Amino acid sequence: MGFLNRKRNTRRSTRRSARNAGSEHSAARAWSFMLPALNWRRIAVSLASVTLTALAVLGLTLLLNQPIQHVIVSGRLQRVSALDVEKIVRARLGGDGLVSADLDDISRGLHTLPWVDHASVQRRWPRSLSIEIVEQVAVARWNNAGLLNARGQLFLSESRFVPPELPQLAGPAGTEQEVTARYLTVQGRLTEVGMRLAALELDARGAWSLTLDNGVLVRLGRAQVDERFERFMLAAARLVSQRATDIAYVDMRYSNGFALGWKAGGSGSGGSSSGSGAPVHG
Known about the structure:
By secondary structure, the chain is of the alpha/beta class. Helix content is 39%, strand content 23%.
């Protein structure tokens, strides 16, 4: 009996295995019939359309990418030479045409010219480039022979020509923007009372001093610079304007008041003070 039972079990296992194999085969056949049919005609038409579009774009680019024959330079040019502009443009172009030209690279090249503040480069069809130049505007001299713009940028460190009418600013390296900002503020206030600034200096210790166009030196020191300048405008500016030929300097480094230094032969005896308080060293 045991032998017969084992034989029956073996037959049942064989039938189950056959049924499972048949099921898997049927599933595989069913899966193979679920794959979508490809519309090869539509694919061919799409590929042809993309190819034709790319060829059309390439052809149009080649047609428009004409050699550049003219460089048109505009702007109020006093320091920048149109010839220098054209030389840089030609060098940056190489063999590029109107479409392939790198306008940003040309603009960067133009900014290497010392007096160029801004350069705009545009294409002008069919074979030209339009260049608009905005020159730097110098508002002050810096140290020995440098020139500053209104943003406090030292755009020329060694200028061969320094306009003598510009005020002289001086300070340690890296303080150009700080000194320029104070100059613009001070000059604006002085103009209100008919004075002009000839020089402004920030020394290595951080002390400020300014020289008026009438030759009078005003010492502001290191601390409370804005407050001291305002006190000068309120209390000393009128006197300096009236007695500029006699006054050598005004020392505002006092806690409350100021001191005057008289020129030789002036009405003072070498120095006098107005107000109270001891001099402040700073």
